[in-house]
Amino acid sequence: MTYRVVQWSTGNVGRWSLRSIIARPELELVGVWVSGSAKAGKDAAELAGLDTPTGVLASTDAQALIALQPDCIVHTAMADDRLMEAVEDLKMFLRAGINVVSSSPVFLQFPYGTLPSEAIDPIVEAAEAGGASLWVNGIDPGWANDWLPLLLTSGSERIDRVVCSELMDYSTYDNPKVLFEIMGFGSELDELPLLLQPGVLTLAWGSVVRQLAAALDVELDSVTQDFERLPAIEPLEVAGRKIAPGTAAALRFRVSGIRSGREVFALEHITRLHPDLAPDWPQPAGKGCYRVEVEGEPDYQLDLQLYSGGDHARAGLVGTAARLVSAVPAVVRARPGLLTAVDLPLTTGRGLVS
Question: What's the order of all strands across the beta sheet hosting 3-8?
């Protein structure tokens, strides 16, 4: 069976999901939405960095693309600074009867226990009204901290704690808005950026620990957040911007799921703008990795290293995009509603072996 797909945005993740859609034999690209006139009218292949034209031209006309009634929209538009608008976009697709796989807003990966019912119910209602499904995922939050740790726990006799970590050098991450406005790199240490405002970490990544707890039948008492920032010790240049000594250049945050006064699940990020920063913090395998640790009997540690053209940051974008696109057939076939990772069957890179 062939599934008709519209790609929604062609930014950092979208250009890679566009390539992935074009590569998949079971998917037919029928439309591409772009946010501005600079990309409108361009062939999807050009936007994806491919040589062979597809005949599908990008458009800023959202309603015309919805009117195509595709089986699925691959939604990768950035939502960090427009959360409510992004949720309204998703509801619009669902009401139109179109299934959606999306990289954001990330709290919809597993919103239960993180969002109030009045925030979740309208999304579910829109999905049920349109007979469509929504699945939000990626690599983090995503398969690096849902399927990977859950697979490891299946080999456990006893589980004491599960910790999922991202340990990355972000010096090659080409997203100035995220780096400087949202994460606060290059700012004074006493200036809290959006990411570190009270409750934001538990909103964005609380879904990770709550989903692990639900999948392993654990009732949490609370979800907490903590962070630490360290300054640059010498001038740095990242994403075209100079990072002055004394300003934020390394960030470590942790979101913890607590039961009976003890941390049972944790999501941790350790982000540096230079590998020499914060030498006492945990170090990645290679230039960057996703690490899963299961403490119990036995103890497991899995380090997932990733590279694309030698760049681990780009590999994370490719991995996010491909994960969404791989799930399109399963999401189209799934029950209407808001799906989580544990609702889907195993999805693979079927048809991609060269």
Answer: 58-59, 27-33, 3-8, 72-75, 99-102, 133-136, 337-339
Distance CA 69, CA 98 (A): 7
d(CA 225, CA 256): 6
Show the tokens assigned to 203. Answer: 């909103």
Give me the torsion for CA of 271, 290, 47, 238, rounded to 10°: 20
DSSP H helices in 131-199: 147-153, 176
pLDDT digits (tens, 9 = 90+) for 29-62: 999 999 999 999 999 999 999 999 999 999 999 9
Q: Give the model confidence (pLDDT) of 173-186 as tens digits.
A: 888 989 999 999 99
Q: With helix as H, strand as E and coil as C, how does 28-84 read?
A: EEEEEECCCCCCCCCEHHHHHCCCCCCCCEEECCHHHHHCCCCCEEEECCCCCCCHH
In this structure, the chain runs to a length of 354
Q: Concatenate the DSSP letters of all residues of 252-299 into one string.
A: EEEEEEEETTEEEEEEEEEEESSTTS-TTS---STTEEEEEEEEEES-
Distance, first Cα to last Cα, the chain: 21
Closest CA to 93 of 55, 39, 54, 136: 136
How would you classify the pairing of strands 248-259 and 337-339?
unpaired
Question: What angle, 0 to 180 degrees and rounded to 10, lies between the N-to-C axes of helices 117-130 and 83-95?
Answer: 30
Q: What are the backbone dihedrals phi and psi of residue 214, each rounded to the nearest 5 degrees, phi first? A: -65, -40
Q: Report the distance separating Cα 316 and Cα 246, nearest Å.
A: 29
Q: Rounded to whole angstroms, how far apart are CA atoms 36 and 257?
A: 41
Amino acid type, 334: A
How is residue 78 written in tokens?
Answer: 């950035």
List pLDDT tens digits, range 199-230.
Answer: 999 999 999 999 999 999 999 999 999 999 99
